[in-house]
């Protein structure tokens, strides 16, 4: 047993460990009050300013995304209306020299006026455009999500879809005096519903200079004249689209559906109360 005993004593074999961070006693850490830190505490006002800047940047990004999605929808219906790239008799921006440029100026003026409306008008337009877009979409959840997230997409969809399919009232071709009268009365009802006080809102803009309103009325007659020159198959297809759009916009009323079935121009007269056309 003693053969395995150490030749030196245990106390002599014990070495002295150097003083390291693992062996030294822990001293309580006391911060230096005189030292200044680089991360200073922010005041509530600075936090609010940072949040407001972030919200403004987010709104700018969402606005650009909405414009991008709206232009995508518009170009898709451009392709539907003109699959060969050649514009037909339906496309007309004016009948006299300078009318096309006036139409572009009017579009810019309308966009400028749209930014000046109050919160009530903005939410009213949002509800109307979204309601009409969801009612006339392809029963697609993705489309309905876009309409709810981007208001401009819903407005562009309503206009572009009716323009491409010929379901707008300006492309209606009444075949009888009764149908023309029903189209006129339906248009009056739509105007009264959009402007119950008789005062047109800022989105209604027929011109930015003297004489442009009259040019627009002449252009509307020109569109009706050009529309009569379309092939019979295209006119019948547009009447079908007008009926289909009218059935969707009806209020679940059998009487309204019977009128739309008899007079397709009535179905084309349905539109949102936002004057987005």
The multimeric state of the shown protein is single chain
Decide which structural class fits the backbone.
mainly alpha
Helical region count?
11
Beta-strand level of the residues, as a percent range?
under 5%
- In N-to-C order, the SSE pattern is HHHHHHHHHHH
* SS elements, strand count: 0
- Average pLDDT reading: 76
End-to-end Cα distance: 109 Å
Helix content: 55-70%
Shape: globular
Are there runs of 5+ residues with pLDDT below 50, and where? 1-27, 35-40
What Rg, in angstroms, do the CA atoms define? 35 Å
**Major sheet details:** none
Q: What's the layout of helices and strands?
A:
Blueprint: H1 10-13, H2 44-81, H3 99-114, H4 119-136, H5 141-149, H6 151-165, H7 177-194, H8 212-227, H9 232-249, H10 254-262, H11 264-269
Helix pairs in contact: 2-6, 4-5, 4-6, 5-6, 9-10
Region (Disordered): 20-42
Organism: Gracilariopsis chorda
Protein name: R-phycoerythrin gamma chain, chloroplastic
Tell me what you see in this structure.
The chain is mostly helical and about 280 residues long. Among the domains are: about 55-80 and about 95-165, no CATH class; about 165-195 and about 215-220 and about 230-275, no CATH class. The chain has eleven helices and no strands. It has helices spanning about 10-15, 45-80, 100-115, 120-135, 140-150, 150-165, 175-195, 210-225, 230-250, 255-260, 265-270. The longest helix is centred in the first third of the chain and has 38 residues, at about 45-80. The radius of gyration is 35 Å and the shape is globular. It starts with 9 loop residues before the first helix and ends in an 8-residue tail after the last helix. This is R-phycoerythrin gamma chain, chloroplastic.
